[in-house]
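Tip: read the tokens left to right.
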């Protein structure tokens, strides 16, 4: 497996290259976004480890570009340990987030977990409901396999990994009140790392994308003191 490690700290790059090579990985390192983009255009990469602070740009911009152009798994490795940085990184589509200083063995475990998740190894057999990959609700069509949302006019609406995980949790359980804790568990089960305080933010973002009037939602409704309910008929096609 070929890993691209993007970090402006040379000792960190050397540590990653040496340790991961000793574990059987091929490692390419890059000190900035420009070098990283050149590497991505070269030999196929299986996973990217990316710092957030880079000399020629924000690492989040690189993560956003990677996610826009591919499904390449990304692990953010950063000294930024605030919740907002973690949440933004994960909502942009990063698969995991580890703060510095870090234990190389923990990073290795996370790399293996992400690669297993991407390849499907160790994943339990999918239920009949999950095998029904495309559903319709209101004026929308959601492809649960391709993770794509389209309107009746064929227009595709881009969803972050966290937004898709939350919407998938809703369409699989329509007309049911779901608490924040339940939504956290369900989205994490689909591979998205979401935090308690970000559920409400994700709800707002989904409403802006799928509701005719986000201020008066008819699809994702709030049940005061209880949680949220997906109040739309869902049809499998």
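Filled-in amino acids:
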């Amino acid at each position: 497996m070929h890993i691209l490690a993007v970090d402006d700290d040379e000792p960190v790059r050397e540590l990653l290259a040496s340790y991961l090579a000793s574990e059987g990985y091929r490692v390419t390192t890059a000190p900035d976004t420009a070098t990283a983009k050149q590497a991505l255009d070269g030999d196929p990469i299986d996973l990217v480890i990316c710092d957030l602070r880079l000399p020629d740009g924000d690492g989040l911009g690189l993560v956003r570009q990677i996610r826009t152009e591919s499904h390449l798994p990304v692990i953010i490795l950063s000294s930024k340990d605030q919740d907002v940085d973690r949440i933004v990184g994960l909502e942009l589509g990063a698969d995991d987030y580890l703060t510095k200083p870090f234990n190389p063995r923990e990073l290795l475990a996370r790399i293996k977990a992400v690669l297993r998740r991407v390849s499907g190894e160790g994943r339990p057999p999918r239920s009949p409901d999950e095998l029904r990959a495309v559903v319709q609700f209101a004026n929308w069509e959601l492809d649960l396999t391709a993770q794509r949302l389209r309107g009746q006019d064929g227009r595709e609406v881009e969803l972050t990994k966290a937004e898709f995980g939350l919407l998938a949790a809703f369409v699989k359980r329509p007309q049911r009140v779901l608490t924040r804790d339940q939504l956290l568990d369900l989205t994490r089960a689909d591979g998205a790392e979401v935090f308690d305080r970000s559920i409400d933010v994700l709800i707002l973002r989904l409403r802006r994308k799928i509701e005719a009037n986000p201020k008066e939602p008819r699809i994702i409704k709030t049940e005061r003191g209880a949680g949220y309910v997906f109040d739309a008929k869902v049809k499998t096609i």
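The radius of gyration is 19 Å. Residues 104-119 form the longest helix (16 residues).
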